[in-house]
Design brief:
By secondary structure, this protein is an alpha/beta fold. Helix content is 44%, strand content 16%. Helix 3 (32-36) links the parallel strand 1 (25-28) and strand 2 (44-45).
Length: 109
């Protein structure tokens, strides 16, 4: 049953941690205003509504972690990008979650 939730809502934190350690492309799909109010170190801001015009930025990346405020917009972004043939995408959920993982990795180094 938990596998169903994982497939719907994304990778678990241990999987995300390994993907991020391996140099994933971290993409915050919130608005620029939200992003400027706090963001994950090393992430780029590609708002959800601009993704169709920026698909090329996602091509050729080994792994991509998408995140937003609560997980809804990154789920939409993941779905759209998968329709464009980009399949190495992971839903990180909220930016707080991804930020905590990045900070945990940093504290281990």
């Amino acid at each position: 049953m938990f596998g169903i939730f994982k497939s719907l809502f994304g990778a678990d934190n241990e999987q995300l941690k390994e993907i991020i350690k391996d140099g994933a492309f971290l993409v915050d799909v919130r608005t620029p205003g939200e992003y400027s109010g706090g963001s994950v170190k090393g992430s780029v801001n590609i708002p959800l509504d601009t993704i169709p015009a920026k698909v090329a930025k996602f091509k050729g990346k080994k792994n991509i972690v998408l995140f937003c405020q609560s997980g809804g917009r990154c789920t939409q972004a993941k779905s759209y990008l998968e329709q464009q043939g980009i399949t190495n995408i992971f839903n990180g959920g909220s930016w707080y979650n991804v930020d905590a993982i990045v900070n945990e990795i940093k504290s281990e180094q």
